[in-house]
């Protein structure tokens, strides 16, 4: 078995995972759904679906299909503490991981902002590329 390239988990520790492959740099999503899920924009890395291993597969991870998310994807969260952990959609071979749930130093950097047309007026603006919608 390949050694983990990263580990992470939720606030209460009930959900823990290992990443066993390369992670994409972080994309910040400003869509309304991410802002409501996180309380601010969502920041995600991404890996191949098979490169994420849940350390307790029968644990507290749950998946949510909301009225807005139904056409875009599912949100994975801890059913105990509510931490937002993952985002996935059936069309993609990848799963997005909430960057803030990764342990320690990752070497990742913020690469892009998406759904910028829905960015809250109080959010900080930088010089990274922006797109009106997701890529």
What does this structure look like?
The chain is mainly beta and 135 residues long. The chain has a single domain (6-118), classed as Metal Binding Protein, Guanine Nucleotide Exchange Factor, Chain A. The chain has one helix at residues 32-38; strands spanning 6-9, 16-19, 26-29, 42-48, 52-54, 61-64, 74-78, 84-88, 94-98, 110-114. The mean pLDDT is 87. The strands form two sheets. A seven-stranded mixed β-sheet has the order 6-7-8-9-4-3-10. Strands 1-2-5 form a three-stranded antiparallel β-sheet, with no helix packed on it. It is built from one helix and ten strands, in the order E-E-E-H-E-E-E-E-E-E-E. A hairpin with a 5-residue loop joins strand 8 and strand 9 (94-98).
Secondary-structure map with pairings?
Blueprint: E1 6-9, E2 16-19, E3 26-29, H1 32-38, E4 42-48, E5 52-54, E6 61-64, E7 74-78, E8 84-88, E9 94-98, E10 110-114
Parallel strand pairs: 3-10
Antiparallel strand pairs: 1-2, 2-5, 3-4, 4-9, 6-7, 7-8, 8-9
């Amino acid at each position: 078995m390949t050694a983990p390239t990263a580990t992470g988990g939720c606030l209460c520790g009930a959900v823990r995972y290992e990443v066993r492959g390369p992670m994409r740099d972080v994309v910040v999503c400003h869509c309304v759904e991410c802002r409501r899920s996180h309380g601010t924009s969502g920041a995600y890395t991404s890996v191949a679906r098979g490169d994420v291993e849940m350390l307790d597969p029968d644990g507290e991870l749950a998946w949510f299909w909301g009225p807005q998310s139904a056409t875009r994807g599912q949100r994975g969260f801890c059913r105990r503490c509510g931490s937002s952990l993952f985002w996935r959609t059936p069309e993609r071979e990848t799963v997005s991981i909430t960057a803030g749930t990764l342990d320690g130093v990752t070497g990742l950097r913020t690469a892009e902002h998406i759904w910028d047309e829905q960015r809250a007026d109080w959010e900080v603006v930088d010089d990274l590329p922006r797109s009106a919608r997701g890529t």
